[in-house]
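Hi, here's the filled form for the chain we discussed.

Project: internal
Contact: R.S.
Residues: 476
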Amino acid sequence: MPASAPPPGGAGDDGLARRSVTTFEVGAQSVANVAPSAVIAFAPASMAASAGNGAWFSFFLAMAAVLAIAYCICVFARRRAGTGSLYAFTRLSLGPAGAFVTGWALLLGAVCIGSGSLAGAGYYTGRALDGIGVSAFTGVTGQVLLDVLLAAIAVRLTIASVRTAARVAATLEVVSIVLIVVVLLAVFVKSDHNLFDADQLTLSGSSLDGIVFAVVLGVLGFVGFEGAASLGAEATDPYRAIPRAVMGSALLAGLLYMFATYAQVVGFGGPDGLVASADPMDELAELSGLGFLKFFLHAGFAASFLAVVMACVTVAARLLFGMAREGVVPARLGRAHPTHKTPSTAIWAVTPFVAIPTVAVIVAGTNGLDATTYIDTIGVFGYMLSYVLVCLAAPLFVRKTGAKALAITWALGLIGAAAMVYVFYRNLWPIPESPLNVLPYIFVGALVVGLAGYGALHLRNPQQAAQAGTFADDAA
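And the returned structure, exactly as it came back:
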């Protein structure tokens, strides 16, 4: 942690393309981070397994909890903007130590979600190619080659331009969502069931426990919705664009999830048929007479996962960039590309931590989607911890500044924090099967490593450690 780090604070020439990213591109970052189409590919069936006809309602409850978290994030985003996202926000009420815990948890989350999504991108790319007769990429060697190639593409795009990366990610996601919506609309046309499915609308046969448990799965589908906050230094109008993107992406994803879950249950004639399906969207395409779209669906899912990889690299690299500018991590990570004005050094530093776990798990013989589940789960814990901290920090910040709506901020903050704690608890108990049972402890171990590093910095150079979370701009 060299003392020669660039001076802290958001002012000055940090080398980034400041105030160059449009409101649309800011929103695209959050949407790409959530990747609704990738979630739609497999989440509704898992939800229906426990919630039955109430699966869509579980997504509604999950969306409500996430919107409570989004409100707390927006409390800060309307007043502070920077590359550190929640890391810089929590500094305002939890101090440097609280900011570092938030930032390190978010960094772990972004890296792991990016790594797991890389596995998903490789899996669906292999399936898309297999569908047109190119079967060389479905085995372990082929999957590894695809993962490495896709990682290289993601890195190239994120280094070249944050605007290009955001636009590409948004385009990939929109095309994928359109294909999914086309198939699901065809479900209603072809299905013997009425558009108004009485069993689902009345939650027939669903239990409260089943619906609540499915909320746990539903919340995981929103992780990363705050991704736009990492573009605070580069957004043209950060104090308005970022809050809109954070709230809008959570709401958009929630509405898509409810529609997709409802339509899939209708298409299979009930939740049992959906749960029994090995590949719901493929089967629905066949049932709806749109089997010829399967290649495009697989390509769309692959594109959606690749969009997540790019979005996560963007978040993680900008976190490291901000920490480096403060001197909390090595200063060389705070260097921007002289031409592209992106945090290229930090992007290169993040990339091995995204790619190597994917390759290692695939080489060990794990199926691509299973690899996504395992690695993503570790990342989800990181995001959840950062969400808990920002939910607790928001009302403290409102009280500190004397702003209005303290009561509602406390209420929503506690709801958001409680939801995240409950989700974490349900990942610990009942004890899941291996290897899911060890994943929380892997996360805790990685968290401890970061805290130990920060503790060592605090002992060696307390003034440097106290800069954590300061690399940001504040509204006048």
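Let me know if anything looks off before we file it.
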